[in-house]
């Protein structure tokens, strides 16, 4: 092969490689974000303020579907997630509807026990987080932040399920007993992709059987 041909070949290969790399979507993977970094999710009662500035922490991160927020905290704190800005601004979940606001809580009812709350990001757009401790005073004093969730890779299969149906207590002999009271849900709603997929398959089946009737 003449040297000029070899050079052309090398240039062509390089051009193809460059073109291919330009078309490759940016490589992203699911990430876990430790809220507040080393400071964790805490209120400092000495300074009467959050342990760190959570808004400026959030501003330095990129959040996508399927990522997790990891709240390293203790049982004195709560984590409330809402998609409703009004609820967020109010620092309370008293008037919140339980379809857009969720309280994550650990199993322990005791104060000061260490607690890790893992919150999956399942809905794109604005997501708001705040603490319900001290009747909203801590939220007003910095225990609150807003994030914007992008699409990224989309939801992984582990999170892309419709939520399980709510537990309904079977009627027993003692029907006068009132059902357990739950404030908000522990589980954010899954997205509806699966159900949309099923109904799409359903329509296709209907279409096929219609065709079979018309053209047996
Ligand atoms: C992120 O946290 C979730 C929930 O604890 C865990 O299942 C997953 O393995 C973690 N992913 C990474 C990359 O650390
Ligand atoms: C609270 O803030 C004060 C003053 O910045 C600091 O000395 C103290 O260590 C903090 N307490 C906690 C529990 O972080
Ligand atoms: C903390 O700050 C809030 C709002 O300024 C105030 O109402 C509250 O009394 C303060 N608490 C303490 C212990 O200083
Ligand atoms: C936290 O940081 C944001 C900027 O990221 C700033 O606007 C805000 O005033 C800060 N809050 C406090 C209480 O310092
Ligand atoms: C947000 O929550 C408030 C109550 O805190 C409610 O009045 C309002 O309708 C909700 N907004 C949306 C868009 O659901
Ligand atoms: C949540 O419930 C309110 C009524 O309480 C309704 O107006 C709203 O559309 C619901 N939002 C979603 C996302 O289902
Ligand atoms: C709360 O603390 C008490 C006393 O230390 C202990 O007996 C109990 O098991 C704790 N409860 C939980 C749910 O951890
Ligand atoms: C947690 O709350 C209890 C009760 O208000 C208080 O005695 C304790 O000092 C708090 N612990 C921390 C680590 O903030």
From TrEMBL:
GO molecular function list: electron transfer activity
Domain Phytocyanin: from-to ranges: 31-151
Keywords assigned by UniProt, alphabetized: Signal
GO cellular component: plasma membrane
Signal peptide stretch: 1-22
Pfam families per UniProt: Cu_bind_like (PF02298)
Residue span of region Disordered: 155-188
InterPro entries found in the cross-reference section: Cupredoxin (IPR008972), Phytocyanin-like (IPR039391), Phytocyanin_dom (IPR003245)
Keyword Signal tagged: yes
Alphabetized SUPFAM superfamilies for the sequence: Cupredoxins (SSF49503)
Domain of life: Eukaryota
Protein known as: Phytocyanin domain-containing protein
Natural source organism: Rhamnella rubrinervis
Lineage: Eukaryota, Viridiplantae, Streptophyta, Embryophyta, Tracheophyta
């Amino acid at each position: 092969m003449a040297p000029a041909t070899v050079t052309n070949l090398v240039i062509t290969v390089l051009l193809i490689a460059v073109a291919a790399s330009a078309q490759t979507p940016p490589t992203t993977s699911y990430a876990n974000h430790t809220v507040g970094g080393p400071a964790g999710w805490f209120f400092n009662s000495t300074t009467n303020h959050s342990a760190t500035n959570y808004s400026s922490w959030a501003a330095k991160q990129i959040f996508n579907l399927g990522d997790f927020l990891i709240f390293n905290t203790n049982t004195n704190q709560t984590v409330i997630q809402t998609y409703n800005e009004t609820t967020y601004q109010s620092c309370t979940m008293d008037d919140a509807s339980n379809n857009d606001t969720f309280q994550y809580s650990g199993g322990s009812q005791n104060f000061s026990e260490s607690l890790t709350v893992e919150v999956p990001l399942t809905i794109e757009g604005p997501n708001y987080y705040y603490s319900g401790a001290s009747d909203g005073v801590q939220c007003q004093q910095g225990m609150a932040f807003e994030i914007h969730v992008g699409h990224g890779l989309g939801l992984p299969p582990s999170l892309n399920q419709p939520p399980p149906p709510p537990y309904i207590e079977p009627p027993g002999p003692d029907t006068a007993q009132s059902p357990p009271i739950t404030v908000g849900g522990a589980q954010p709603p899954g997205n509806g992709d699966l159900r949309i997929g099923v109904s799409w398959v359903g329509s296709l089946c209907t279409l096929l059987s219609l065709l079979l009737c018309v053209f047996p």
